[in-house]
Structure formats: C-alpha cells, structure tokens
C-alpha cells in the first residue's frame, strides 16, 4: 500500500505515572484537552472522521471515578445491593440515596459503570474492577479467547493496534512489553487501567493506527473496526481493510476477523483459526506465517481442543444411521468436517451438508451427538401426527440445506406431549429429509 510520508511532531505516550515523548505523524489527531468530553467509540482509532454517539465522558471524570471519591461511591453501591443484581429500580433507589452525600454526576457515572461491570462479568473474571463502555465490552473478545490467543504470541515487544478497552491486553500485557494504540482517549485510559487490573503494565499511544511506527515490534495484534456510526459493515469489510493489516512489515501478525470471513481473503501461508466457546462461534483470527500452524483450524474453548483441516481419503455418503452428529460451527467454518468424520469413523448424509452419522454413540468436543428416533423423506403433513405419537411437547428445529419457515412450522405443530426433541430439516443425497432426534444421555 503506497503511503506519503507525513511531517512529524512530538507527542507523549504514557506508562503508569510516567510519560515519554515520541515522534508521530502530524496527521495524527490532537491530544485530549483537559476537561473536554469525548464521544466513546468501539474502535474509534480506525474510523477517520466517524465517531460513535454515546453518553459523553472524559478522562478527568474517569480519574475521579478511579480515585478515593469514586471508590467510596462504588463501595456504597455494593453495600446497598447486598449481593443482589443492579436492576433499574435498584439504580433509582440507590441513586436517590447516594446523591444526598455525593455529587450527582459522580453517582450517575458510578451506577453506569456498575451496570456495565455486571453485564461484562460473563466475559471478564475481574469485571468488577474494570472500567468499560458498552460498545467496548460488547465488541471485546471474552477473556478465555484473549488468553488462548495471547498464548500463541511470542515474548518481546507486542503492539496492540485498536486496543479499545483492553480486552486483549489483559492477557497480552503480563510478562511482555506492550504498546496499546487507539484514537479514543477514553478507551485508551480504560485499556491501561484494565491491563493493570490483570497485573499488566502497558505503554499507550493516542494515534490513528495507520500512523504508528512499528519499527522494533516483534508482533502486532490488530482488531480492525467492523462497525461504523451507521451500523455493521458487510462481511469481509473492515477499517483498516484486511489487506492493510496483513501487509504490515512486522515479523508476526494476528488479525481478529468476523467468523464469516472468506478463506480466500487470507494470503497463502497464513492460518485462519475459527474460535468457539462451547457451541457458540465467537470469531476468527488470521495468523501470519511466523505464527501459523495450518491453513485452517477449529478451536473449542475453554478446553482448547483443536481440529486442523487436512486432506485425506474421501468420506463416504450414505443414508442416516442411528446417531447424528452436528459439528460445532467452528469445525464447519474451518472446513474440517471431513477430517472430523475420518477421526471418529463417521459418514456424511449429503455431499454438501455438514451433518455426520455413526452407528454407535460418539463423544467428541467437536460435535453434538443426537440419537435418531425417526428418519425419512420430509413430509410436513405427516409430521404433527408423528410428533404426537412420540409424545413430543417441545421441539428445537435445526434447518440445514432445506428451505422452510421455522417460526411458522413451530406455530402449526401445536405440541402437547411431555418429551423434548430436536427436529432436523435437511437433505440426504440431495433429497429433502427430516430426522427426529433426542440428546444422547
């Protein structure tokens, strides 16, 4: 990518309570002005001229929240809740009481943070000590994903471009020299604080990521923006684009991407890793050749089980057997379904459909195993009677390769039985097919 060398000036990067001056491009945004309020962006470092609209806050207010006055309010909120969740009613009650002894704006900001921390607890084990924005924590990787990813990075100097609230820094920073870069001063402040919550110390640089000098960096992690102020970008689009990210002149690079990424957008020699937490596919990561170990892989957390897509003998295609396996979406996106079939001795029921079958139950972290209790060509008219015969009162519908309105089908079934089953709408040898299944105990 051709660039024009811009004139440089000096600015400061911060490390704890120390600062040092560095040279950055004159096109970089100005430093935050004391007392000025800034809009909060999910990854504002990447969107030139576009910022997200959120309640205003500034770093001075965050410093106050992190100091003794804020600690007193947070302690009062915790005491007032007594272990109960922070509901809207509780926030109104606590806010009214706390404003008698504390500034109203401090109380409001502390209650906002308390609510964000409560919601972020599903992602971060130390959320109760972090500072967050809604956009920041929602788009950050879960802690378990961040730790898995950080384990693949080398020691040395790592640069986190577009660090946001520091969701990856919590795992990258401990034991490494890390520079965190963002154009949003609020997120940059939070990133440094949140890294410290997990025992890390980071340098921070307020800059557009395109203007950062990466000389001396051993590795770079990039989480490019996939949203603008107008909403989510189309699959495959980001800012900076993936082509810019993979073209960085750094020994080792990892780029977070949407799980719908096209395999062909990653250069030869790179690895695409699709990461799921349990059954939920969370994200993809593109690893440069220095960090790659395969062309594509599926990883299932928290255990860290991994399956690499590989060439091998063709997998047989035949009619369904007694057990149906529904591969984890990470396996499907990695193109590793046939490798899974070879590992467990399964066959496919259709050339293009990602369901597998076996004649005996299989336990694997890479698929959900169901026992087939009814199987045959798709017959929607016969279906309600057959479900009634099986005493079915609740049904989960899995549709793959077969058109149909799942919500409308749910309404028409009018089930009254006692059993719960999974109804699979699919194709077998390119024929519309239905399977009624139960979970394997």
Automatic annotation (TrEMBL):
Top-rank lineage group of the source organism: Bacteria
GO MF, one example: methyltransferase activity
Annotated GO biological process: methylation
Domain called THUMP-like: residue spans: 367-438
Keywords: Methyltransferase, Transferase
Region (Disordered): 1-20
CDD domains (alphabetical): AdoMet_MTases
Protein name per Swiss-Prot or TrEMBL: Class I SAM-dependent methyltransferase
